[in-house]
Design brief:
This protein is of the alpha/beta class. It has helices at 11-22, 30-43, 54-64, 82-89, 107-113, 133-143, 194-204, 229-261, 287-290, 293-302, 318-322, 331-339, 351-369, and strands at residues 2-3, 47-51, 72-75, 93-96, 118-122, 146-150, 158-159, 162-163, 170-174, 187-191, 208-210, 216-218, 266-267, 281-285, 305-306, 340-343. The protein binds pyridoxal-5'-phosphate.
């Protein structure tokens, strides 16, 4: 099976982890701070706070934003549920707004969803293409809100000459194996604001603020969401390769574009190839074929192509349905979801494997069109 995504681990990554294993520190040592500095410097921001995964990083960001019961957050339904559920953990209400043709939260729809209770806008850089963060920053400024950018897909991308990570009040990353770089599990929040950075550190380590000598105070309802030194050592070597990984992903995306644009029955992802970090390559089936997405998915899996669907609209999940969200809430997101298939894209995917993916997709789609 050719998976839709996978990690790239090289000899220097292995050596770095082994070295960390043999050091005095398995966790809470110097590698964590070194990784944080490297991340902040790569993205051009002042502070990076490493977390145990992207989900706890989102929780930390919402905590730092002082999101609490009675507050609302506006986000997109086309994301992994953690973007929304981390806000539920803070007691906030999640308001879903509709997406644009690229699957990213539409700033106009988000604006229409703002109420007097809204505190945070949480756009997601779907598939690696940054949301329109200039528009979200302007909107947040106008309404007195904070932008928490879920950038779990887009490390390495840029917008308006600024790297992702520097485009919002807080930007959240995940280092899960299928993401741009990996620490196995891992995450981080980046910010230019020293006050937010202090709250992010506090939440990550039990709500503790340190005093003199042995003294410390538990100031808030924090958790243990620390990244280890082993993971940070891996993160440091991975980050050095990020630009190479992104370049390879872009080359794969460009090649998919070239092949699929010659077909009449599919739509390629919107936007310039260089605008995205290409965490995912999401193909859309056009017209009547869209209604046969499930058959296409099963046939592709049966043929050894590890396709996936990103994402089921978050509010369709039972947890959200039980809270009262109903189908039909975001019609564009639902239409988008109904037609999409994520195809394999990762740095070590070879041209030959990619050709096999393309040929198999063609064969499967032709099979669906052939008269029975
Ligand atoms: C958009 C998005 N947000 C949040 C997460 C959560 O990250 P993690 O799996 O590291 O907890 C993920 C990844 O799974 C994601 O894709």
């Amino acid at each position: 099976m050719i998976p839709y995504g996978r990690q790239t681990i090289e000899d220097d990554d292995v050596a770095a982890v082994v070295e960390a294993l043999r050091s005095d520190w398995l966790t809470q040592g110097p590698k964590v701070a070194e990784f944080e500095r490297a991340l902040a410097s790569y993205c051009g921001v002042k502070h990076a706070v490493a977390y145990s995964n992207g989900t706890t990083a989102l929780q930390g960001a919402y905590f730092a934003a002082n999101l609490q019961a009675g507050d609302e957050i506006v986000t997109t339904p086309i994301t992994f549920a953690a973007t929304a559920t981390a806000a539920v953990w803070q007691g906030a209400k999640v308001v879903f707004a509709d997406v644009g043709p690229d699957g990213n939260l539409d700033p106009k729809a988000a604006e229409a969803a703002i109420t007097s209770k809204t505190k945070v806008l949480a756009p997601v850089d779907f598939a690696g293409k940054p949301a329109d963060l200039a528009a979200f920053r302007a909107l947040a400024k106008k309404k007195g809100l904070l932008v928490v950018s879920d950038a779990c897909h887009s490390l390495g991308a840029a917008q308006g000459g600024r790297k992702v990570g520097s485009l919002a009040d807080m930007s959240v990353f995940s280092f899960h194996p299928v993401k741009g770089i990996t620490t196995a599990e891992g995450g981080a929040v980046l910010t230019d604001d020293a006050g937010l950075a202090a709250r992010l550190s506090e939440f990550r380590t039990h709500g503790i603020r340190r005093g003199e000598d042995w003294l410390y105070g538990v100031e808030s309802q924090g958790i243990n969401a620390r990244l280890t030194d082993l993971q940070s050592a891996l993160g440091i070597t991975q980050l050095r390769k990020l630009d190479r990984f992104v370049a390879r992903r872009r080359a794969i995306a460009a090649r998919y574009h070239e092949k699929f644009r010659a077909w009449g029955d599919v739509e390629v992802p919107e936007g310039d190839v260089d605008a995205s970090a290409w965490h995912l390559y999401v193909l859309r089936l056009k017209g009547a074929l869209g209604a046969r997405r499930a058959e296409a998915f099963r046939a592709l899996r049966a043929a050894g192509i590890g396709v996936q669907v990103h994402y089921i609209p978050v509010y369709w999940h039972p947890f959200y349905e039980r809270m009262g969200y109903m189908k039909g809430l975001c019609p564009k997101a639902e239409d988008f979801y109904s037609r999409i298939v994520s195809l394999p894209i990762y740095p070590t995917l070879t041209d030959a494997q990619q050709d096999e993916v393309v040929a198999t997709v063609r064969r499967v789609l032709d099979g669906l069109k052939a008269p029975a």
